[in-house]
Prior knowledge:
Blueprint: H1 3-10, H2 14-25, H3 33-41, E1 49-52, H4 58-65, E2 72-76, H5 79-86, E3 91-95, E4 108-114, H6 123-133, E5 134-145, H7 151-163, H8 179-187, E6 191-201, H9 204-212, H10 227-244, E7 250-262
Amino acid sequence: MCSYRLHAEYADPTPLKVRIDTHEHYSERPDDPIADVLTALDLTGTEDLADIGCGDARFLAHLASRGHQGALVGMDTSPAMVAAANAVPRVRGVFGSADRIPFDDNSFDVLTARHMLYHVPNPVAALREFRRTTKPGGTVAVVVNHPGTHPHTTELVAAHAATYGLDVADAVTVDSDTLPALMSEVFGKVRIQRSDNALVFDTPDPLVRFAEALFTFYGVTPNHPRRQVILNDLREDVEDWFTHHPGRTWRDPKGYIVATAVVDHQGSAPSASM
């Protein structure tokens, strides 16, 4: 993704919160990626843990509220997200990028990177940084979406953005199909936990809110002069869809994987042939 769009998207945590809340309340089956990550990690509560691309820090807040005793670090490229991490008691927010983590080798027992690796220009470089900063015997957990997740809503937003001459979002190169091989290249053995689900809307309003929370990824920035016009047009289309499909729901497939790897004790990355 272009850096200006990424910075605009995460300058304000509100769209991220809308997306997370939408997945929480409008998923076809219970959707709890935090629980899935914690299941994959099986923490004791004493680990020094870094969450790379920490977003609004709710994952770290969850750990802190449950008495995690190890150090908790949230790193992000957005000052607003770093501030959100620093606002959580016992959490340290740090500004930094995934491909140049500002910590020494072997700093953490656990490193998590949730729903962020597809924003990184060089994901393999980031994975090598994850390995470098995690102690031998420590665990790295990476979460990415399935390819083309919630395609109907993204196509809707992309079409309305394109109507006003705006670029669509860049192609995602890291997803549940491509991540296992990338992680195997860096870590060797990788364990995969898969979640398949869908967003389901039976009224227009929550779908419109979710679509608007995707706007910046398609060039409709918060200060774009036609933003309200684009939103009004999109709302009209959504309302028309529900009017012409009585009794039907808007169902959008989605899902993700949690990929975990243990850093070996030799300290050197496996060869690319592994």
